[in-house]
Input
Amino acid sequence: MTSDNKPSSKVVVIGLLFPIISIIAIDFTMNGKIPNFGTEDINPRIANSALTAFILCSTFLLGNMFFYGESRKRPLAPIFGMTVAVFVGVLATIFFINQGPMLLEGNGSIRAQLVYNISHTIVSIIALGFSVIITLGVLFSTITHSPSKIQKTLIALEEE
Amino acid sequence: MDELIEAAILFWLPLAFIPFGVWISQIKSKTATSKLGYLIGFVGIVLVLLSPWTVPQSPSSAIGHLLGFIAGPTILVIFGLFKIAYSGNVPVGRLNSSEKNVGIVLFSSGIIWLSLMHWWTITPIMSSGEVNRYWLIFLPNFLISLSSLALAGGLAMLTFGDSRTNESRYLFAMSGVSFIFLICAMNIDSDNLTALEFREYVWLSIADIIGIVIGSVLSIISFASVIFVYEKSLPKPRSIDPPKSDELLRVAQVIEDNIGGDKR
Output
């Protein structure tokens, strides 16, 4: 806490992680391990999810690099961006493959896994987007229904 | 027709139409192009929603099945939030204050509908009799992210806002409700899903979120490093000389001529 009794900005980051850590802790304490389910199921999901998110996010950022290159008169910026992204992507893939035969989850072929990864990420992004809409909607609603600061000041002045 | 090509034409192409249509619709300089964008997006959405019937053999059509199931509660929630927000103290487009109650009813109905899709018999079930596996990805992801984002949002209101304690309570309540829902679903069987199965999907969702964060951060670092190197290599902008005293006097004169009020 800071001196004026306000939480510090680090608390906001902890707030993002707190429910996830709590779910893991509570579930493990209440129910223990899930039978026939462990790191061999979780690690491939992390690897596939990380690589798919990397590709989708890089595609989006590459589009922005074209605008950046144009505005800063740096026409080669998108190519350099792409090169760095490909390099990091290859390194990440090598890292994940070296952890074991993990990139194929329950799917029989690489193509099926590829399609599943994209579908999976789209659904995850829809879920994330919907929760962002609800959070911002509730936030906006509470703000618009609370008395404005001008009103509060006027009431305080009238009372004086 | 080959199953793969059929899925590509009747599902993946229409799915790609949606962001493409949105992109085209943002070209405001030409009204016809903008309208064409909305039309492309709309056709894409309709074809994706129809995919369980047009390409039932494709596993990807389960996304269309899921979107069809969640469309109703999603529209209710968004429309409800819109009515609540705009019936309050907004400078433009303000709705009648009675719309707030309508909004609360719509929002609550949407949330209850979504909850019943887990607990009751209206769970998205495929024609094969299995629960739609994308629903099992959507629900835990939605609950975990809602719980985290609402808690972080409430804390951000306290940290960065001024006298926003009352408003942050609603976000904490939202976070708490989704968290309790998640814990209950992990311990109590629903009509179509056992608690054990749901637990597996929650753990996979956590893995998914961790993966998405790692992938996105790696990508941002990659492109940020390129921008950093470019920005560092740019020559410093040429500085101009500070204003001379006669220039300052001239500026002061112009300001005095243009700003009224009593002189001290």
